[in-house]
Amino acid sequence: MSKSKVTIQVMNPGQLKDDVLMLGDAYVKQWKIPVRELLTVKLGSEKQLITLQSVPRYDGLRIPAVLARKFGLQNGQSLRLRYHAASQSLIMGPFIGILVSKDRPDNPEKPFGPISMFCKELVEACQAQGAMACVFTPEHLEQSYEPLTAWVYHNRIWKKAQVPIPDVINNRLTTRKSENKPRVQQFMQEVKSKHGGAVFNEKFLDKTEVFDVLKKDSSIGRYLPESHALRNFTTLKSMCAKYSVVFLKPARGSLGKGIIRVTKLNEHSYQAMYTTVNGTRRQSFNSLPKMFSTISGKLTNNRYQIQQGLSLMENGGRPVDFRALVQKNATGKWTLTSIVARTASNQHFVSNLARGGTLSTVKDAMIRSNLPSNAKQDMYSKLKLASLQIAQGIDTHIPAHFGELGIDLAVDHVGRVWLLEVNSKPSKNDNTPLHDNKVRPSVRKIIEYSKYLTGF
Questions:
Q1: What is the mean pLDDT of the chain?
Q2: Phi and psi (nearest 5°) for 233?
Q3: Would you state the pLDDT for residue 433?
Q4: Can you tell me the distance from the alpha carbon of 388 to that of 203, in angstroms, rounded to the nearest whole number?
């Protein structure tokens, strides 16, 4: 099986028969492709029977306009080719689809909201590497999705086009409601079962699920603070007896929403701190049952996880944690793409950027931290090792396909690394490396992994 990148030349009607392709003779000879025999040409879910003609001193692929429309191809674009001799198939790709929550056709500058730049970067990087990409939403799936109506980027303009179902789907849906729509679930299943494609980051992760499965992995246990599903007062009482601070976190929450910090002030009194848009709200109670009675309303609407409070490293009295972005690479192995330190604002006890947190490098965070000198040593390596082990643990124990994970880690006041949570839809804003780069490394990794999944 061989592969190379070629330029597509779309031929006008009448210049080339509708079932004929023309390929440079160097590729035909190198791959030993039979000419003037029936072959299959494939891109994503679209397949067509064609005959191939060899063209001397030519290094591109000529395709009739009628086939170019079926494949969603544009004149002048570059695509990788590979020839599969056993099935006599000429395969183009890889073709990557980005499934996003919403589109905004009335806003051409940001047609996909805050991830518009990520989508543009991915499409442009695909074009440079001989891959193809499109963007679509659950609304597009409400129509017939063979062919799929999607956004493509051509001549610096986003436009709607009909394309085959892509080889690889990167699930960037931001709500469980969107992800759980029957049409979306049916589509993802058909991508895998009917078309032999791949969907990565195919589901949200649940905090309870993550901690319950990772507890079973002996190599990861040292990173796990004590954590339980909060089902009743008994669990709260038990954890508050063990720890002076505990955190209550929505099992399916994100961006620091809904987190409650419970602090034991003395033998009988407790303080609850809530995250709000404007800062932290405090409420004091003279007994634990009274506090539980007040917060129990939240527990009926959302499942909560109760977690051991940690004495985190600080910068200027503000807690610091770390977001690691781990992604699978060109050989399908987990690699670390970036780690950034996140320092909480003065108004919040969580460090999320959505709550006013600020970013810095691990090195800068260590320099300014209150950790003892010996605890600062090799911290980047410790965080990297923890990230990769946790990612592998998720892969091993949770039956779903993940290609990238955002892993939130903490370092306590003596330098021990802890896991806070794992996010299967890591933000492309939080994880941007702290330097100016035209195509961020996280985008390149997605293309590398897609090429691996598709044999390119």
A1: 89
A2: -65, -35
A3: 47
A4: 20
